[in-house]
Write a structure and sequence with these properties.
The complex is a heterodimer. By secondary structure, chain A is an all-alpha fold. Chain A has a domain of 224 residues. In chain A, strands 1-2 form a two-stranded antiparallel sheet. In chain A, helix 4 runs antiparallel to helix 5 and helix 7 crosses helix 10. By secondary structure, chain B is mostly helical. Chain B has one domain. Chain B is built from 21 helices and two strands. In chain B, helix 6 runs antiparallel to helix 8. Chain B is globular and about 70 Å long. The two termini of chain B are 34 Å apart. Classes of the chains: A mainly alpha, B mainly alpha.
Amino acid sequence: MDQLASVDRLGPELILLAFAGIIVLTDLVVQRRWLVVGSSLLAVAGSLIWAGTLVARDMEGSAFNGLLVVDNFSLFFNFLFAGIAAVVILASIDYSERFSRYQAEYYALILVSAAGMMLLASTVDLIAIFVVLELTSISLYVLVAFLKDVRSSEAGLKYLLLGALSAAVTLYGMAILFGLSGSTSLADIGDVVAAANDDTRAALVMATVFLAAGLGFKMAAVPFQMWVPDVYEGAPTPVTAYLSVGSKAAGFAVVMRIFFEALGDHSISGDWSNMFAAIAAISMSLGNLVAISQSNIKRMLGYSSIAQAGYLLVGLAAISAAEGELSLGGSGVIFFLAAYAFTNLGAFVAVIAISNRINSDDIGDYAGMFRRAPLLALCLTLCLVSLTGIPPTAGFVAKVYIFNAAVQSDLVWLVIVGVLNSVVSAYYYLRVVLQMYLEAPPSEERVSAGPSLGLAMAIASGGVLFIGILPFPLLEVSETAARVFGS
Amino acid sequence: MLSFIVFFPLLGVAIIALLPRERERDSRWVAAGAAFVVLVASLALFAAFDRDEAGFQFVQSHTWISGDIAHFDVQYLLGVDGLGIAMVVLTALLGLVAVLISWRIELRPKEYFAWLLLLETSLLGVFTSLDLLLFFIFWEIELIPMYFLISVWGTGRKVYSAWKYVFFTFFGSAFMLVGLLVLGSAADTFDIRLLSEMEIRDALVPTQVLFFLLIFGFAIKLPVFPFHTWLPDAHTDAPTAVSVMLAGVLLKMGGYGMLRICLSILPDVARDASVWLAAFGVVNILYGALVTMMQTDLKRLIAYSSISHMGYVLVGISALGQVGLTGAGMQMFTHGLITGLLFVVVGLVYDRAHTRQIGELSGLAHQMPMIAVVMVIAGLASLGLPSMAGFVSEAMVFLGTFGKHGGLTVLAVIGILLTAGYILWMIQRVFLGERSPRWDGLGDATAWWERTALVAMVAVIFLIGIYPAVLADVIETGVQPIVGRLA
């Protein structure tokens, strides 16, 4: 009975994995692209529905002897990652014509890594966390190299090598925690940390540093951002979109899990809050400054994603500074992740639609895009405005929310760094808008998105506007999700 | 009612968006209709405004983000006091004028009028918001239409000027956002009505710093020397209608913000800062006037004269008393009208002569008598001739300030002399003097839309000059509570 409930709680992920297997196997027999795409969308829908029934049936609780939990936090990320996967799949339909073979594998890998990301938000045991971390990463390594041209292969290799390194560092941090506590369960570790004395403190600080470094790779925060621009540029664009929102969100989810649950005690949280504040300031500044000089839009969005990781880290830093109130910055991070997912996916969908037609990612080639593709350009503008943080968009509310948490945690200096960075970022985001709006188009040929890209675009920009104008449903949900970590 | 006024222009935007391409020129009728309805509605509101009652009227309030779920309350809270209603009427009037003088826009008219209407909505929102965050949202939204209007429909170095404008404003508002969040966290509300009754002593930063954070953005907008350098560029390169809005309404956002937020919420700091405000105001007046004298471009001349005239607003504010603040409010309104009219006239001259160089123009009164007469009226009003609007407000500013900062007021009065100098000199060079055969082919203002705009503005200038109470009474009820706070 208990095992059955465990399997039930794992349902959303199991559906994705099962469909991934079915898709690959079916493809051996019948090769139909609509079948592959259809069944992967079906898998995502199934996963969403299952997660929905978990909510409806009040199935919160732990599973598999405390290896993973289903709570508001993990359910939130179930929905988020399913949504992200759906948009990525929609965005891949036209693009995947560029792959000569292995269409089915491509979609299957997206499903597998989505399952991995969901699990990252719900596992509460160091061993399990590491396993699902690898599950996510390895499928992403393959996806990055999927174009199999020089750049894509180089990107894949780079991602693999640096990813392996970061996994090793993460593992080292986990080993120290295990050594200190004799347990791999986050809850047990939390108890030990709460009782830590001066002798163990040094080791604890080391463990936090190693964990932050290893997982900082996933979050794409400075100084573990080296892979971002090259991998973003080389990877197939839908995969880049996936990396920029999915992988990042998973990184933040697991960081919140580990740091809030195992390392949330006052004695240590002040230290890592300061560390995250410093990383946040550097990530924002570096990402924004370097993004200014980029001429390739994928590279630019890569640096922009480093900067956005910086804003998110402001939320992580804002957690511990407020007395015992972990959920304050936490809900900010969760809200920001969702808002950012819509925004960045929208931007990437537009980039995919445009590059499908003009075969270029150069910002200069976006000249006159308002003439050639008015709707597409308008949606891209909306997303870029949201990334800048100008109302009435999701990005604005997210930034205000996270900065407000930081102010309440007495981090005014960090907020000042943040808002000044927003000013800098306006330059390179709006430059693209200007290019599309003001410059003369090189040709009058219309650029149009197909129905699938159009749908993806509509979902993303609709979300950006909806969250920007009516943010409270999402605010309420993120607040509930963050309350899992209590005080 | 207020919501109707604020958002009615958006209805116009929607209709314009639906117009087919062949009928794109009809978008001007839609825009004129929308602006006209807004003007009628705001005049009705002005008539219905209870002049005996200080405080906010026509208040509409809905919870937008509830504090229970988000750690901060944001309300959709609109309302006007005497100051707000005056600014709403000004915006509505100039909004219609801006549409009328753009009647012959040929370049992408659909987008042009849509941006113009969006601009009007954001401005009306700024002057009616009673929630700090809502205020900030409208404040930021205004950037986007301005950016497009200047960079696409401007002249000269339009892209540079648009950037400069956006960056200066965004830079200032970045600090403002920090200030608002700190204020909100100290007072636990963003409701301006409540904040204006509180004593804010303990914030995360010293109240002096808080005051600076808040006033910085307003100072850039007003603009206060040495943050004025965006203004001449933006004004000169913007299309005529946008110059009118910029000088007529957008600058007033700065003065309005100082009165509504800095003075009413932090009166203690305002008292200490009073002498600084006066000093900066005097520098603005004198520096602006001296630089104006040296201009050879008509539009640039009027742009610099705005810097000088905004100095009077600052000086009036520094008086911190009933007369001075009313004078500052009056000056904002009358300068909006007068300078708006000056820009209209310059725009008409430029449309005909295709030059704005004062040296090339001469004796235009022969060819365009009506334009010349209006220019003389606007010029005389600008230099403060009794019986015209400019006189009343400047007199009140000086009366109010003399008792508090005698020496500085004496210096400020010199500005009047300088104004008389550059205005009369300009009129003499451009309109009077030798008839120049080069301009013989040019016609007067004959089109109905030109005449409507000119007559309407001249009429209001005389109305306020002869019977100032129609406006002064209203503004006085608006500043009364602020004066009460400062006493």
